[in-house]
Specification:
Protein MgtC; 160 residues; MgtC/SapB/SrpB/YhiD_fam; elongated; 72% helix; two-stranded antiparallel sheet; 5 helices; cell membrane; membrane; mainly alpha; cell inner membrane
């Protein structure tokens, strides 16, 4: 019989890692939802949780096999690429591409989930804080630069 959790402490840490992954991914998703982006709180939280579960389970089943963990990470990141691609929209008439930041946050949520799932909750938390800082301050700086250069917003560009 396979014993996945040798102690109650291991089981508690496993559950805590999943909760932190969900929380961290959800907070990034909340930022996206507040700005009316295509993927929000639920999407980011679920992506982070699923990545955490994938890496946690493989580590429980193969505790010494870095090779198995590496394959899980590769598979997770490939799958996340498809989800991220789904939020990227190209507008031919407006010469714009939208959704790249949201796609990047989806990918980052998966990485945060992998970090938390492998027991690196501090790294996941720091990643989440940095992401929120970039999303908040970056948006402010981009708008300030646009105003100082007096460039028209990309949505106002006309076809030739």
């Amino acid at each position: 019989m396979l014993v996945v959790f040798p102690s109650e402490l291991d089981q508690f840490l496993f559950l805590a890692n999943l909760l932190f992954a969900t929380l961290f991914g959800g907070l990034i998703g909340l930022n996206r939802q507040l700005y009316n982006r295509p993927a929000g709180l639920r999407t980011h939280a679920l992506i982070s949780l699923s990545a955490a579960m994938a890496i946690s389970m493989i580590q429980q089943l193969h505790p010494i096999g870095a090779d198995a963990a590496s394959r899980v990470v590769q598979g997770a990141l490939t799958g996340i690429g498809f989800i991220g691609a789904g939020v990227i929209v190209h507008h031919e008439r407006k010469y714009r591409v939208e959704g790249l930041t949201t796609a990047a946050t989806i990918w980052l949520s998966a990485m945060i989930g992998l970090a938390c799932g492998s027991g690196q909750v501090l790294a996941g938390g720091i990643g989440m804080l940095l992401a929120l800082l970039i999303l908040t301050v970056g948006r402010y700086l981009e708008r300030k630069i646009e105003r100082s250069r007096k460039l028209p917003p990309p949505s106002n560009l006309m076809d030739d």
